[in-house]
């Protein structure tokens, strides 16, 4: 018995004979002579180890096995015919998979905008999204387990040669504080507290809720620098790795937190966001990916991100060539 795998040519011949129920008509439809067609069908039957047709001098009919096999063969041929357009779509970045991680801060401003625009332009691309701290994203990138990540700058210097970075958005820090504390920190009862600046000096005794430094060293240092510039040494009361948890702890009266301005979109009962009276300190969120490993799908996403960055004024010159911006 022939143990080889059927080829597409044999399968097309099988469908033609099954539909025409006549070798001569099938051969004419295929623009070939009948003997090679008959030989090809016999070779297919030998390969499969079954009879596909019951033959007489006047007719040819599908056997029960051939009748059951016909729809499966049609599906195989349709899938094979779809390979070329699929390959071209993949090459153009119109189809495929993009694995993207993001810091929790991006979920309240930047990320939804990027996903909306990318989805509108690349509806056939399947997104695999994961929330992760910047340090975890860097390790996942270096290990090749994700395609790109939205992180808080700066990047670890030890990975500078492996990664490319594009700054996307800069935003000031605001302070998230329990509502009762906000009232005591200089906000009159008839004012919208969210518009009233507050000095860190007025909150010197309030515990600070913050990311652990080992997980977000860049963000942690920015916050500590903000206190240092005010001549203060904060007392860390609680640590949490997700922004939602930090704000929830503030809501519970566990302390105050310095958070990106976009976190105003995360509303919690009992939490007030207020601008700082000091000179605004900003944090930078950017896109990072492995240098030299840009798939067509990733290239399409980078194009979307670059457009947003340019609109926000975050990109100046060849920003992607600087993997460690800010010098913080």
TrEMBL record:
Statement: the UniProt record of this protein carries the keyword DNA-binding: yes
Domain HTH lysR-type: 6-63
Pfam families: HTH_1 (PF00126), LysR_substrate (PF03466)
Keyword DNA-binding: yes
GO cellular component, one term: protein-DNA complex
GO MF annotation list: DNA binding; DNA-binding transcription factor activity
InterPro entries: LysR_HTH_N (IPR000847), LysR_subst-bd (IPR005119), WH-like_DNA-bd_sf (IPR036388), WH_DNA-bd_sf (IPR036390)
Keywords: DNA-binding, Transcription, Transcription regulation
Family: Belongs to the LysR transcriptional regulatory family.
Protein name: DNA-binding transcriptional regulator, LysR family
Organism this protein belongs to: Paraburkholderia caballeronis
